[in-house]
Amino acid sequence: MDESDALATAVAEVWPAATELLSGRDLESFASEVLVGLRALEAAAHTARATPGGPGAAAEEAEEAARRRLAVLFAGRPPLGERLAASFDALLTGQERRHVPAPPGSLPYLRSLIVPVLYATDRDGTPGGDGGDGGFGGGRGELRYGKALVGIPDDHRLGAVEKPRRWLLRFRGSPERDVVLGGTTELSAAAFGQEARSLLDGSGPRQALVFVHGYNVGFGAAAVRTAQIAYDLGFTGVPVLYSWPSRGAVLSYEEDANNARWTVPHFQDFLRRTLTGCGADEVHVVAHSMGNRVLTEALAGFDTTALPPDAARLGNVVLAAPDVDADVFRQVAPALVRQARRCTLYASSRDRALGLSRRLAGYPRAGQSGEGIVVVKGVDTIDATALDTGLMSHSYIGDHTSILSDVHAVLHHGTPPAGRFGLAAVEHRDGAYWEFLPQRR
């Protein structure tokens, strides 16, 4: 174990004491500073280790500066500084006694962030029950609200981006699953709004990000995906999941399709409550696959612009691989465009899941590109065919860095396609759309 790994391990060992000695805003601020410091240390150590022929003087100085930065952070919070120094020294001297140095980069502790995800669901089941789905099943139930805690492994590539205030820094000594659902707590509708307002306080822009999952997705997987998208996008507002009763089974496509229609009134109630009772100024929505049926049908029959003047506005609507009849989407698109600040649709001709859906339905899907790609006034259509999006090419919204970067530019900056990296305009009989440029290998 080298000095950088020893220091990172010492931070993990001392961290429980930090959570006991500090609290509230003081702990939140300190955790953000420590998180950025650890990322800087890992990045500097990675650069030094990856340098051919060994690290040069500049790389060694950068790594040493990162170690000093962490040490100074803890030294300013006595007695944490003394504990960190003692743990660090013990790790190094213990290594010398064993005469078996650990390989560089083999940290015994894994760092993660605990992300609070608010949710609304009309699945059946008992919230907080055992299992990876938080006690929820795939059958129909009443609309209920709550909060889930999801552990997300932290990545040093995020660099100096601080964590949102209410995300907790955690270290664990075993690698179990990297991304886990830690538990669910049911809330009343009123408490749901209060919790959202509490999470938004001090978060910067008062924004919520709603994720609507697709076909063949259980509650646990949907909660994890919500947290992962918020993490990857560096979203500092409130992540919110709307989970409708998907059976979470490959052979339940028709049942899921029926439930996606059945849930629409509940989603409208949820959206109304989120826009009017959660203290947000703007609510963004990302829908994936069959979840776009829920979203588009709901907005076609519910005018969010008619809500009271102090209600949140509908911000960016992101339609990822929408499993929606392409002609039906063209009919309802004006309702989406009129209500949202910006609508972005991601499509691909490689999407095998939508290819199967098209064969079952007999008509093209809005998430398919090619000759029949959906181009509608007011909707930014992005063709992702040129990207390597995996075997099924269906879950690229949360898996591909180029698309995440593109969504980041939309959500954080409202950048139109013409100003986003890696996109080229394509003329079409119905107007222009955009496509990702082929990736270099």
Please, could you describe this protein's structure?
Helix 6 (219-232) links the parallel strand 5 (207-212) and strand 6. It is globular, with a radius of gyration of 24 Å. Strands 1, 2, 3, 4, 5, 6, 7, 8, 9, 10, 11 and 12 form a twelve-stranded mixed beta sheet that branches. The chain is built from 13 helices and twelve strands. It has helices spanning 3-21, 24-50, 57-75, 80-98, 189-200, 219-232, 253-262, 264-277, 291-300, 326-339, 352-361, 396-399, 401-413, and strands at 110-125, 136-153, 168-172, 180-187, 207-212, 238-243, 282-288, 313-320, 340-347, 379-383, 423-428, 431-436. By secondary structure, the protein is of the alpha/beta class.
Q: List how many beta strands DSSP finds.
A: 12
Stretches with pLDDT under 50, minimum 5 residues? 96-101
Helix/sheet category:
alpha/beta
Question: What composes the largest sheet?
Answer: 12 strands, mixed
SSE series = HHHHEEEEHEHEHHEHEHEHEHHEE
Count of alpha/pi helices: 13
| Rg of Cα set | 24 Å
Binned, the helix content reads 40-55%
Determine the N-to-C terminus distance: 35 Å
Topology:
Elements: H1 3-21, H2 24-50, H3 57-75, H4 80-98, E1 110-125, E2 136-153, E3 168-172, E4 180-187, H5 189-200, E5 207-212, H6 219-232, E6 238-243, H7 253-262, H8 264-277, E7 282-288, H9 291-300, E8 313-320, H10 326-339, E9 340-347, H11 352-361, E10 379-383, H12 396-399, H13 401-413, E11 423-428, E12 431-436
Parallel strand pairs: 1-6, 5-6, 5-7, 7-8, 8-9, 9-10, 10-12
Antiparallel strand pairs: 1-2, 1-3, 2-4, 11-12
Helix pairs in contact: 1-2, 1-4, 2-3, 3-4, 8-9, 9-10
